[in-house]
Amino acid sequence: MTHSTQPKSPHRPRKEKPDKAQAILAGALQVFTSHGYAAASMDRIASAAGVSKPTLYSYFQDKEGLFFALVMQLTKNNRKTLFSLPTKSNLQAPPDKVLHQIATSVLTEFSQNQPLLTLMRLIIGESERFPELAQTFIREIKKPILEKLASYLASQPQLNLPDPMVAARIFIGSLVDYLITQHIMNGSEILPLEGDRMVDGLVHLLTVKAGSR
Length: 213
Prior knowledge:
Blueprint: H1 18-35, H2 42-49, H3 53-59, H4 63-74, H5 76-83, H6 95-111, H7 114-125, H8 131-154, H9 164-184, H10 195-212
């Protein structure tokens, strides 16, 4: 199979008839979680959604675009929280409170959202055969989140962070590692760690300098 080398954004569903778009996404979720990415044909998705293939293609141009529309839907709450972050240091909650809220929200939403965990497992598992799948996830979801968080951290001089982007990657990377270890690789019994303890330690790591000034 030949893969396009040109980066592309996931095709968003058109705005008309949102009920049909939601039916397609629901059918896609069923097929992706049951059959995996490679075996999830557009025929199967159309059948599960109860729509014709022309209707399916009128909303989503290809399987990759449909997959990421689904990921975007399942991560909507977390992205909304992150993209509403203020970028000024006045008239807002202290950074430790903000970061604690973000970390708790991310861990709660992912750990309690089995379909999202399944899709994350698919992205990791299929990253060798379908590198564009992982790259699209990084470009469309992870990169904007990191940039927004780094911008927020840079706007908080009291944190005294020499490199806000590195701090953002440490913060998000630690949460992702926790989720992968505890929930995707089923390591919670081997490396037990409560989510609250993880969040408290991570926030302390980034804000300890601010408290000692």
